[in-house]
Amino acid sequence: MTEEVEEWWELTARWFQDDIDLDVGVNWTGMGVDDDLRLLLDVAGKDVLELGCGGGQCSVALAERGANVTGIDLSTEQLDFARDLADERDADVAFRQGDVTDLGAFADDSFDVAFNAYVFQWVEDLTACFRETHRVLRPGGRFVFSMPHPVYGLADPESHEIEGSYFETGRQVTPQEDLDVDMVTYRHRVSDVHNALVGAGFRVERMLEPGSSDPDDYEEGPWGEHRPELLAKLPSTLVFEARAA
């Protein structure tokens, strides 16, 4: 991750956690805790790594299911919140500060499962991240993650018309009126993500695009942007399940 991403999170972490107020659980789609996807239910006794653990809501949830969880995040402010949350719930989670593209703090073959939810839009170099993730996973280890669907972000929230090009990838800048630093994210095409996984030695087992064509199926999530009509037209989330070959 880049210095500008780290700076943005250090400035916004407390606001994010206080204002968004995420529930403890795995929030795969960005619209609330949704374990109905049944992606990480059988983790008891397994060594699990969360890449970009943020405030620790996902890590704590898996620790409460009996997993041995380690969470890594770039932001010290996020990690302070995560440690407080774990203490409040008496959850045993090892939190470490670090970059998901450099997992040098962990030995080869250290984990059974690696996962994250809505993190990779902040990561420029997915290839480096996936190679490092493959290295720290044991043979046959699972890698499960969700990210914003690149198609959804192209639609105007009001008109639903496509703006920009799907083929424009890389650095995206969102000005922040009340901050001295802009929000920087990175757009990845579906093929970029898939090919980076394969190139790192993973076998992609499933891709999911959770959603429904019925606007009434969408409840308001924690982000303050409830767009059921648009969500019923385009997938907002892309999920990958892969296994270390």
From TrEMBL:
Keywords: Methyltransferase, Transferase. The lineage of its organism: Archaea, Methanobacteriati, Methanobacteriota, Stenosarchaea group, Halobacteria. Gene3D superfamilies: Vaccinia Virus protein VP39. One of its GO terms (biological process) is methylation. It comes from Halosimplex pelagicum. This is Methyltransferase domain-containing protein. GO terms for molecular function: S-adenosylmethionine-dependent methyltransferase activity. Pfam families: Methyltransf_11. Residues 49-145 form the Methyltransferase type domain.
